[in-house]
Amino acid sequence: MNHLDPMPHRHRAVALAPAVSQLSTIGAREHHEYELYLAVENIDHSRTKARHPQTNGIYRSTVNLLLEKYSAAASAGGASVCAQAGIPVAGGHSIDSPEPIYGLVALGIVDPDRVMRNSAAQAGDRLILTKRLGIGIYSAALKRQVLDERCYAEMLASTTQLNAPGAELPDIPGVHAVTDVTGFGLLGHLLEMCRASFLGAEIEFGRVPVFPGAQTFAQKGIGTGASTRNWASYGHEVDLPAIAFDWQRTMLCDPQTSGGLLIACSDEAVPQVLDLLARRGFEYGSVIGSFNSSAPRVRVDAIGRHG
């Protein structure tokens, strides 16, 4: 269950977007297992409940405690994300529970030759991040009841934006590796790429897209416990500038809900990747660094424009 948004429709949209986006990260397009069964059995969708996804889904609710209106709105939020991705929702049940629980299993089909992995980066590849950082910090500010409407709107817009461009990246020559930035933060998931590809990486902090509001909160000491734990687990594999501040480290370790993609591609592929992102509404897609042939670790350079 995702606790970011108290509004049930948006709450489910925030919760479901990461699950649906996971498939796009590896280059897959979404298909529910029920849809696959219907295709195999040559059954018309119009004769099934999949035509009305709001009545289905793996939905567990506190039936005796929640109003029917809330349950319907929560289901509609999840259905809206699935509809945006072009996938049906089918099956499911409800149970009594101390708190509302909602979940889906997202399955996809991908050509093995088009699978994008995090282990195929090459020395010299440029590193592109598709979304701004700071969702974890915004969620911490929300829990403290200090998040204003503008920042709240930014948080919702980012967390409900599907990583759909991931399914199109295999069509661009020179795109070698992809992962998504989630709970381990930018540094953690970049380190995973480094270890898997046997490469080092360097990023310029000033080029990393961040939410200005999240930066302000981080400078005031607002952050998540997960960010601190992230740094404790992999900080020994990261080289920070001598003048780095604690808030900058917090930003780089900030856990993301439905975070952006981290893309490794050749110099020649950069314009095509950035063009794809722009056409799909990822206006903050940025080149933040590159891979090199050194040992698997990350070096963070100049503080730059966020300093």
Characterization of the model:
It is a single chain. With 307 residues, the protein is α+β, with helices and mostly antiparallel strands. It folds into two domains: 8-109, 60s Ribosomal Protein L30, Chain: A (2-Layer Sandwich), CATH 3.30.1330; 116-306, Alpha-Beta Complex (Phosphoribosyl-aminoimidazole Synthetase, Chain A, domain 2). Helix content is 37%, strand content 14%. It is built from ten helices and eleven strands. It has helices spanning 8-25, 33-41, 68-85, 135-143, 149-159, 185-197, 212-219, 225-234, 246-253, 270-279, and strands at residues 29-30, 58-60, 101-103, 108-109, 126-129, 175-180, 200-204, 238-239, 261-265, 286-292, 298-301. The protein has a seven-stranded mixed beta sheet. It has a two-stranded antiparallel ribbon with strand order 1-4. A two-stranded antiparallel sheet has the order 2-3. Helix 4 crosses helix 5 (149-159). The chain is globular and about 55 Å long.
Architecture blueprint of SSEs:
Blueprint (H helix, E strand, L loop, with lengths): L7 H18 L3 E2 L2 H9 L16 E3 L7 H18 L15 E3 L4 E2 L16 E4 L5 H9 L5 H11 L15 E6 L4 H13 L2 E5 L7 H8 L5 H10 L3 E2 L6 H8 L7 E5 L4 H10 L6 E7 L5 E4 L6
Helix pairs in contact: 1-3, 4-5, 4-7, 6-8, 7-9, 8-9
Question: Which properties best describe this structure?
Answer:
single chain; 307 residues; alpha+beta; 60s Ribosomal Protein L30, Chain: A; Phosphoribosyl-aminoimidazole Synthetase, Chain A, domain 2; 2 domains; two-stranded antiparallel sheet; 10 helices; 11 strands; 37% helix
